[in-house]
Each structure stands twice: as structure tokens, then as C-alpha cells.
Amino acid sequence: MIAFVPFLVLIVLLICCITVFGNSTLDGASQVVLLIASASCVLVGWMRKRLEWETLEREMTDKVASCTPSIIILLLIGAISGTWMVSGIVPTMIYYGMQILHPQWFLVSSCLLCAIISLLIGSSWTTIATIGVALMGIGKAHGFDDGWIAGSIISGAYFGDKLSPLSDTTVLASSVGGTPLFTHIKYMMYTTVPTFCIALSIFLITGLSMNVTTVGNVGEFSEGLSHTFLISPWLLLVPIIVGVMIARRWPSLVVLFIATLIAAFVALFFQQDLLCEISNNGNEPEFMILYEGVIRACYDSTNIDTGNEMLNQLVRTRGMAGMMPTVWLIICAQVFAGALTATGLLKEMMEYILRMVRGTFSLVASTVMSGIFLNITTADQFLSIILTSSMFKETYKKHGLESRLLSRSCEDGGTVTSVLVPWNTCGLTQSTVLGVATLTYLPYCFFNILSPIVSMIVAALGWKIYKK
Question: Cα dihedral angle (459, 392, 160, 67), rounded to 10 degrees?
């Protein structure tokens, strides 16, 4: 049982961090805690086996090196999130997407709208903190309970986040699982799409069974977008081009880089006034001002004034610099995973857990439940994904199962359930943003609740389960 001591240290310190730092725990406190937990691993390993420092250092270095592709992808995601927003591509898609919102279909429309926006920007947090807040007000005016409104918003946002190639959790799960990004996304559809369809059906039936009125402030968002950005259907060609590249199975790094370049050129032609506003430099020639605006959109945060504060939050971007806390977290988590591996503590924990594994179903079920358990104990979805993948990676290889099953199971158990834990960073953030207690919206987050269950059912049926 001494193998669980580092986890105990990690859990206790994370609880203290969440109590002290709250929503800003991921800004640095969690990373420090991970390094302290890594030190406890090293101490336990040295006391038990007198391991040489060079062995420990080599294992931790190798773990960090294995995440280099995901770090590069995360930086490109930061660049593409900035350029796609400033170029007007995402605002155009949001502008037309909001037109589907209709009072009679509020719950299903809000779920779909959040799914589309989250899929485009790759962030459930941003989606919920912006359009989600507006939808809460609209839903209350229509007479829906807070739990139903928040449940539809969170279900849609986490569906889009889970399948978006711009999502840091999606990139992380595919990377640590050793699965190509778009292969991972495609394989997740076998469990994610049916689950989302079930959730949509529930929201549709519930919405149609209630009497609603025509109340809403979607028009303010549409007006703010149209006054700030040049909205044009031609901009929709860019995601279509990217979709073609994805369909042709181009490498994710290539797709993301080309998508960033295309968006940069689109911004130069369609959003020149906005680029000048971002650059904040009127002393240079016009071309240099536009160039500075594009470069800033790639690496720096942008604050665009639309005249609507909630909409400002939606179109605000973080750029490559905004990805640094996540990169920092990945590096520290890999150091912790390397320390667990080098000292043999991870192997001991695996042997304890794998005593219950008898076949593919029990392996997938153990992976999913471990993700949920780590969400509860470590209070962070990133740690849940990384540690679950590290624990089960070799076992999947031993059973001859492809890595995409591992990465999908990590997301089915880790990514979507994090928001259901009141003390998890996701649950804490979303309950604060929406003004709804976690336990109030939990019963209505049908997508998040059903995802682990559907994942285990699919494994039990053996549907699309491939062996090498």
C-alpha cells in the first residue's frame, strides 16, 4: 500500500490548493504540487530500492520528451484560436449558428449551439462562460429550471470540447495514449455521437412539453458580432477547406499550421480595422501595422470590444501564450508519471488494480472508472487523463488492443466527468460561472453521465473493438 503514498500527498495538497486558490489553481499551484508529489515518489523509491539519481532523471526526461508533439500542437492551437477569431471565421459561424435558437426548441437548441461553438473554439470553459451565461438568462425567462438549463449547456459544451481538434484535453489524451489526433477523434465518435443523440432527445422532449414565450437577447450578440467583424458566408470556406484536409488524413500538425496561415491571410483582407486596433501602433506603415496585428493574434491575448461584455468574453483569445499553463501542467504531470514509473510504484498500483481485469470489458471498465476516480481524488481532468493513460498503456499493449481504445476510454472517463465533481476545477468553475450548484445541474448533464456508461456498453458488446 506504500505505492499509494505519493497519490495521498498529491490529493491532500491539491485539496489545500483548491481551498486557497480556487479557480486559479491551474495557473501554477497544481504544477508545484505535482513536483512535490514527484519528490515524494523519488524519496519512497530511494528508501526502498536505493535507485540511482541518473535512472530517475532519465525516466522523467523520457516522459517529458514523449509529450513534445502535444506541446507543439497546443501552441498551434493557441495560434489558430487567435487567428480564427480575429479573422472573423469563428464569429461568422457563431453568428449564423445562433439563428437556430428558437424559444420552442430552447433546450435542444442551446445544447446544439454550445456544441457547435465549443467544437469551433475547442474550449468548453470559454463556451460556458460566455454564451452559456446568456443562455442561462434566456432559459430563466422561458421558465426552465436552473438544472435543466445548465445541463443542456454543459452537455453541449463538453461534447464539442471532446471532439474538437482544438481542445487541449483531446490533444492531450491522444498524445499520452500514443494515438494520432484525428484517429482518436474519429474513434471517439462511436461512443460520443450516440450518447449525444440520447441527450439531445431528452432535451427535445422536455423542451416541447413546456410552454415558452419569445424572450431572449440573441439579437444583441448578433448585432455586436456584425458591427465588430465583417460577417460573410465566404469565410465559411475556411473550415470547409480544413475539413477536407482532415478527411484526407493529413497530419494534425500540418493541418493546424495551414489553418493558421489561411486565417492570417483572411484577416489581412477581411478584418483590417480590427488588426489595426489589436496592434495599437499607429506610427508604422500600414502593412507593418497589419503584420503586427496578425502576429499578436497568433501569440498574444486579444481583447476585442464589441459593446457587449458577455460577447467580449466570447471573442477574447489567449493565443500561444495562453497555452503555457497547460504546457507547464503537462510537463510537471509527466515528471510525476516518470517518477512513478522509475520507482516501480506505478507498476505496484497497476498490479493491484489489474487483479480485477479478466478481458476487454473489464479492462475498459477499469480504465473508465479509474478516470472518474482520479477526477474525484486529484480534482483535475488533465491529471486524470495523463495518469490513467500511464497506468494502463502497457496493459493494453499486452492484451493486443490498439492505443485508440485506451485514449477513448481515458476521455470517456476523465474529460466529461470532471464537471460533475464539485471540488474538481471544472465543477468548481462551471458552478461559479453559471450560478448553479454542481449537485443541482448534475442530474441533467445527460451527456456527461451517460458517456462512461455507453463506453462500457460498447466494450461489452465488442463493437468496433480492434486488436493488433
Answer: -150
- Which of 98-107, 148-157, 234-243, 432-441 ranks highest by mean pLDDT? 148-157
Confirm if 29 and 21 have CB atoms less than 8 A apart: yes
Nearest one of 400, 405, 402 to 458, comparing CA atoms: 405
C-alpha–C-alpha distance, residues 318 and 285, integer Å: 26
Q: Which of 87, 165, 86, 155 is nearest to 120 (CA)?
A: 165
Give the orientation angle of helix 403-410 with respect to helix 381-398, to 10 degrees. Answer: 150
Between the CA of residue 305 and those of 86, 164, 231, 249, 316, what are the distances in Å?
12, 26, 16, 38, 9
- In angstroms, what CA-CA distances link 2 with 7, 345, 346? 10, 8, 11
- Cα 448 from Cα 460, distance rounded (Å): 20
Query: Residue 467 CB: number of other CB atoms within 10 A?
Result: 9
Rounded Cα distance, 143 and 32, in Å: 45
- pLDDT at residue 248 in the model: 76
For residue 51, what is its C-alpha cell?
535507485
278-318 pLDDT, tens digit each = 876 656 667 788 888 888 888 888 888 877 776 777 677 77
pTM of the model: 0.71
What DSSP letter does each residue of 374-394 carry, written as one string? HHHHH--HHHHHHHHHHHHHH
Planar angle of CA 80, 86, 88, nearest 5 degrees: 100
Q: Cell numbers 473508465 label which residue? A: 368
Of residues 22 and 386, more confidence is placed in 386
Q: Cα separation of 263 and 122, whole Å?
A: 16
Dump pLDDT digits (tens) for 80-99. 878 888 888 878 877 776 67
Q: What is the pLDDT of residue 271?
A: 86
User: Which candidate, 440, 449, 462, places its Cα nearest to that of 146?
Assistant: 440
Residue 315 and residue 304 in contact, taking contact as beta carbons nearer than 8 Å:
yes
Query: Do 13 and 5 meet the contact criterion of CB atoms below 8 Å apart?
Result: no
Q: Return d(Cα 62, Cα 251) in angstroms, integer.
A: 23
* pLDDT confidence of residue 215: 45
Other beta carbons within 10 Å of 282: 8
- Tabulate helix, strand, coil % of the chain (nearest 5): 80, 0, 20
In the block, residue with C-alpha cell 471532446 = 162
Q: What's the residue count for the chain?
A: 468
Interacting residues of 373 by C-beta distance below 8 A, sequence separation 6+: none
Other C-beta atoms within 10 Å of 143: how many? 12
**Region for residue 448 given its phi and psi (left: phi exceeds 0; alpha: psi -120 to 50; beta: otherwise):** alpha
| DSSP per-residue codes, 327-378 | HHHHHHHHHHHHHHHHHTHHHHHHHHHGGG--SHHHHHHHHHHHHHHHHHHH
> Is residue 277 predicted with pLDDT exceeding 70?
yes
